[in-house]
Design goal:
The chain is of the alpha+beta class. The protein is built from 13 helices and 13 strands. Helix 2 packs parallel to helix 4, helix 8 packs parallel to helix 10 and helix 11 packs across helix 13. It starts with a strand and ends in a 20-residue tail after the last strand.
């Protein structure tokens, strides 16, 4: 599914970027990174609008939930350019009628109401609308006029009157006219964030989707597939054989039961893992890494490092007088550690010059 928005999500506990529409696990992962409590909504800012740059100005940046924003982008991703123009027109009408900004719930209803409207492509001014209406028999008084008399008509006035009478609006693509009541879809949607009933969702070349791990005793035909959703979102987009992904899905299930899934996601991010077999190997090598979920910035790494080495009195005197950020960077460089959206990861023993390749070298083996 094509991406509609790139957003930055933030809370008092940090921030993360997310492409929308997002998969179910990607949404849950963002909530985990931001440490959101149930019912708490993050602040969000749209960074890029690759598919809907004419609709996003109507969004309410201070209202709505992450699930609502994702539901809107899921619908927008399904629409073609003509349908986007209709949504833009409906949003523009709502804006002109005083809905400023427009609630996400309302925009969702508008996005599902494209078949309730008529779009006249290429008609973007009063004059063009007037000429279209007159030339297509919508102005009985103009019937039978000669070509010369026809061209003397005030098309701009005719178009303006039609637009006002019909409650239509001009968009970049054409003229949008509502022809029936808009749909009320928002109330029917289940926007509850729920854990999926799979660890990995794989997709075959023909679009068929397979939930992994497969039930015990079920045999799957082996072949190349792509990971389209995962309990470890860093794996999304990677390809492998079904059998390999199934083994990894079983390991993810075990890691979650053992309370190690967040550490695993952090290690994937820190090592830059982009290979399914490598990701499978990392699942059995987590004891080579230390993981601390608290630090998210270098100064927090520095404070934690000093806290375990100095008495409280000395620490209280030192902290206000040193550059914790620079000190934290030095600590990370010396220890081979990296900050991720989940926390701080470093080798269990000794520094690492290149954590991305650490799991491939015998010299970098860690306890």
């Amino acid at each position: 599914m094509r991406k509609v928005f790139e957003v930055e999500l933030s809370s008092k506990n940090g921030c993360t970027e997310l492409a929308l529409p997002a998969t179910r696990y990607a949404l849950l992962d963002a909530v985990e990174k931001l440490e959101l409590r149930e019912g708490e909504r993050p602040d969000w800012e749209i960074l890029q609008t690759p598919a809907c740059h004419n609709i996003y100005p109507y969004l309410d940046p201070a209202g709505g939930t992450l699930s609502e924003l994702n539901a809107l982008t899921q619908r927008l991703a399904q629409l073609n350019e003509r349908e986007h123009a209709v949504v833009e027109g409906l949003a523009k009408l709502a804006h002109e009628q005083g809905e400023r900004p427009i609630a996400l719930s309302r925009l969702i209803d508008l996005a599902y109401s494209t078949d309730c409207c008529h779009l006249v492509e290429g008609v973007v001014t009063d004059a063009q609308l007037g000429r279209f209406c007159t030339g297509n028999g919508f102005v009985p008084e103009a019937e039978g006029l000669s070509d010369k008399a026809f061209e003397l008509l005030d098309f701009a006035k005719i178009g303006r009157e039609f637009c006002e009478a019909e409650g239509g609006v001009f968009t970049r693509v054409g003229y949008v006219q509502r022809r029936e009541e808009l749909k009320q879809v928002y109330k029917t949607l289940d926007l509850t964030l729920k854990k999926p009933d799979y660890a990995i969702l794989a997709e075959l070349a023909d679009g068929t989707q397979v939930k992994l791990p497969a039930p015990l005793g079920e045999t799957l035909a082996d072949g190349p597939v792509q990971c389209v959703d995962s309990a470890a979102p860093g794996l999304i987009g990677q390809t492998a054989m079904v059998s390999t992904l199934d083994m990894l899905a079983r390991r993810l299930t075990e890691l979650e039961l053992d309370g190690e899934l967040t550490k695993y996601k952090a290690v994937l991010a820190a090592t830059g893992c982009e290979d399914i077999p490598q990701a499978l190997a990392l699942a059995d090598e987590l004891d080579r890494y230390r993981f601390d979920p608290e630090p998210r910035e270098p100064d927090e790494v520095a404070a934690g490092h000093l806290k375990g080495r100095l008495p409280e009195e000395e620490l209280a005197a030192l902290l206000p007088n040193v550059s914790l950020y620079r000190y934290g960077q030095a600590v990370m460089e010396q220890g081979g550690g990296k900050l991720t959206g989940y926390g701080y990861v470093q080798p269990s023993i000794g520094p690492s010059q290149n954590m991305e390749q650490g799991q491939e070298s015998d010299e970098m083996r860690m306890m």
